[in-house]
Amino acid sequence: MLNHKMFFFKRNFLLNKYILITGATDGIGKEAAITYAKYGANVILLGKSKKKLVQIKRQIEKNNSNTIVYILVINLESFNHNQYKLIFKQIKNKVPYLHGLLNNAGILGKIDPIIKQKPKIWKKVINVNLNGSFMITQTFLPLILKAKNPSIIFTTSGTTPNGRANWGPYAISKFAIEGFMKVLSAEYPSSKLRVNCINPGSIKTKMRKIAFPTENNYALMQPKDIMYFYLYLMSNISKNKTGIRFDVKKLVKFIFN
Questions:
Q1: 3 state DSSP class of 190
Q2: What region does 240 belong to: left with phi over 0, alpha with psi -120 to 50, or beta?
Q3: Which runs of consecutive H residues, i.e. helices, occur in 2-71?
Q4: How far apart are CA 121 and CA 20, in angstroms?
Q5: 15-35 burial: b if 16+ Cβ within 10 Å, else e
Q6: With a cut of 50, which residues of the chain have pLDDT below it?
Q7: What is the C-alpha separation between 101 and 196, in angstroms, rounded?
C-alpha cells in the first residue's frame, strides 16, 4: 500500500489554493476533497446529493477550522447551460480564482456488449462522464486561467488505451476524456495551465463493487492510498507536466521497486 508518511508534504502545502472537485460525495472525489483541505486548500465540492455534501463539508470544517468549503448540488446528467452560468456567477462572487479542478465525477452504466447497450443508459453515461466534464471545465476555465500555475485533472480508467469488451459507454467516455485532456493541453502550450489524467487502477470504491460484485476486495488499495498522485498533480511540484496520462499502478512500481 502507498503510505502518505513516506512523502513529505508540509501541512500547508496547498495553502490559499481554491480547488473544485466533481463527484465529491464518494470514493476518490470525497477523499481528494478531504486531502486537499488537510493540506490547506479551500475546496468547492460538487455532487448530486446535498445530504452527503453537507456531511463532508462539516467533516472538513471540523478538522480544518480555517478551510473555506462551498458546496454545489448538481446532477451532471440533466444540468443545462443556463444553470452552469448561474453556478459560475455564484462561485465568481466568492473566490478570486480557481487553482485547480478535479473532474472526477463518473458513472459505470451497464456492463454489456455493444449490441445490448440501451440508448438511454448510453446517453446517461456520456452525459455524466464526458459532457459534464466538458461543461464544468469550459464554465470555470476563465477562473482557472486567472490562477498562478493552475491544474486540471481528469480521472480516467484502465479500460483505455486498449479498450475493454462489454464496458461500452464507460470505456468510450474515458477514451474521450483522455482525448479532451490532450486537446485542452495542446490549446495552452505556452501557458502555465497543466492538464493531465490519472488512472487510479483497482481501488476499493462503490463503483468497483458494482463492476466486480464477486471480487475479493480485501487487498485493493483505498482511495486514501493514492492521494499522493492527486496532491502531486494539483501542486506546483508538477509544474510543466501536462498532456500526460498517469497510471498509478505503474508509478507505484516505479517508486517502490
A1: coil
A2: left
A3: 27-38, 50-63
A4: 27
A5: eebbbbbbbbbbbbbbbbbbb
A6: 1-6, 256-257
A7: 11
Task: List strand residue ranges (DSSP E) for 23-165, in order.
Answer: 42-47, 69-73, 100-103, 151-155
Measured torsion, CA atoms of residues 64, 90, 18, 224, in degrees rounded to the nearest 10 = 60
Q: What are phi and psi of 112, to 5 degrees?
A: -155, 155
Q: Which three cell numbers stand for residue 53?
A: 455534501
Q: Which of 36, 170, 228, 232 is catalytic?
A: 170
The model's pLDDT over 100-112, given as tens digits with 9 standing for 90+, comes to 999 999 988 888 9
Is 102 in contact with 20 (CB distance < 8 Å)? yes
Nearest one of 82, 18, 24 to 48, comparing CA atoms? 24
pTM here is 0.91
170 is catalytic: yes
Instruction: Measure the CA–CA gap between 143 and 100, rounded to whole angstroms.
Output: 10
E strand spans, 98-227: 100-103, 151-155, 194-199
C-alpha distances out from residue 185 to 29, 74, 178, 191, 218, Å = 22, 26, 11, 10, 37
Give 203's Cβ-side CA count (13 Å radius): 26
Residue pLDDT, tens place only, 184-223: 999 998 888 999 999 997 666 666 565 555 666 667 778 8
